[in-house]
Amino acid sequence: MSGVTSINLVENALLVSIQDDVTDTEIVELQDTLSNRIAKENVKGVILDISSLEIVDTFVGRVIAQLAGISKLLAAETYVVGMRPAVAVTLVELGMYLPETRTALSLTHALTQLRRA
Amino acid sequence: MPQTATANILNILESDFSGVVEEWLGTQVKEGVKRSDLFSDSESRAQNQELLKAFTKGVRAGVVNEEFSLDDDEWEDLRAVLADVSKERVGRGVTPTEMATFVLALKAPLFTRLEAMTDIESGKLISDVLMVTRLVDAFAIYTNEIFIGERDQIIERQRQEMLELSTPVVELWDRVLTLPLIGTLDSARAQEVMENLLETILERQAEVVIMDITGVGTVDTQVAQHLLRAAAAVRLMGAECIISGISPMIAQTMVQLGIDVGTVSTRSSIRTALADALQKVGYVIKTSEVS
């Protein structure tokens, strides 16, 4: 597992913090580790904290969409939290609206919505 | 003394300066371009004198071998005076036609005076007339250019001002923002509106955003595209977007254009949108029992 990206269990969800200097290899590894842990720990949700991401490209956008797809198949909802305005604008310009993910302003909001679900 | 191309013209301009000014004014009256309603007689006279003085100076120094260009240093005075005069005329609402005719009216007094000079042979007369025409035409074209440039500046300034004052994001309630859109929504404005909105969402930690398009005159595919992109960005930030102010007319147009709003909620009035938004952030609207 990479040292840059951490996965922590918070309540009934896995919290994943993606750092700004994450490499393509690390993010592919993350996909693998994360899917294993979702299956093993039987969580209800995955929270992707991308507040430290300042730049996104189509690759990162696609990985986020794939993570959401994988989680959904394993019966967990994906919440993307803390997206910066510039990142949101870029994703929209790239045409990546991430319809398979849920979004929340912050970790607290995501947890509240998860508890309600 | 060798006959230069402009000798006769200079002679007229220098020996009968005030006569030319008076007749120039007279022609302007005749052509109907002297705006007595905008400029007093003394003001017009002063302007004409200044212009003609600068013009004479240019003719004296700026014409070499029948060639000249108003961009040369010798014509600097004329350009400066013209800039002032044009600015003032634009400000008072003179039309471009009036401005051009105003300058072109200078030909008449010069022609009559050339004609009256009995010592010119006919071949020379024609070349002198040609020279006057070229000079005055260049003068008029330059005037129009300055005139239009002046107007362009005004338009650009107003456009900039409109862009700045048009995108307020208002906090309606705790965690509820509204963005009243007014006027036209082109790409530049849409971009600015979106960035402004997203920053405010982050700053206020807003959960619901109402984009009100009551003040947007027409919704075409372009405008709808901008709106939906803004809504998508708002959702990515983790907030929810409601588009309100969709009139029956706009609803019909949108359906006819085949615009799909997807999962974005739409409301006809900001009133219902607000009720919805408050409910979403956990408030209940109740009528007071004491009435």
Description:
The complex is a heterodimer of chains A (117) and B (291). With 117 residues, chain A is an alpha/beta fold. Chain A has a single domain (6-116), classed as Transcription Regulator spoIIAA (2-Layer Sandwich). Chain A has 4 helices and 5 strands. Chain A has a 5-stranded mixed β-sheet with strand order 1-2-3-4-5, with helices on both faces. The mean pLDDT of chain A is 88. A 5-stranded mixed β-sheet of chain B has the order 1-2-3-4-5, sandwiched between helices. With 291 residues, chain B is of the alpha/beta class. Chain B has 2 domains: 7-160, Histidine kinase N-terminal domain (Globin-like, Orthogonal Bundle), CATH 1.10.490; 170-280, STAS domain (Transcription Regulator spoIIAA). The termini of chain B are far apart.
Distance between the termini of chain A: 30 Å
Query: Can you count the helices of chain B?
Result: 11
What is the ordering of alpha helices and beta strands of chain B? HHHHHHHEEHEHEHEH
Helix content of chain B: 55-70%
- Enter the CATH topology name of chain A: Transcription Regulator spoIIAA
Specify the structural class of chain B.
alpha/beta
Lateral strand order in the biggest sheet of chain A: 1-2-3-4-5
Relative strand content of chain A:
15-25%
Shape of chain A: globular
Question: According to CATH, what is the class of chain A?
Answer: Alpha Beta
Low-confidence stretches of chain A: none
Biggest sheet statistics of chain A: 5 strands, mixed
How much of the sequence lies in strands of chain B comes to 5-15%
Name given to the CATH architecture of the largest domain in chain B: Orthogonal Bundle
Q: Low-confidence parts of chain B, pLDDT < 50 over ≥5 residues? A: none
Pfam family, one (chain A): STAS
Organism (chain A): Thioclava sediminum
InterPro entries (chain A): Bact_StressResp_Reg, STAS_dom, STAS_dom_sf
Protein name (chain A): UDP-glucose 6-dehydrogenase
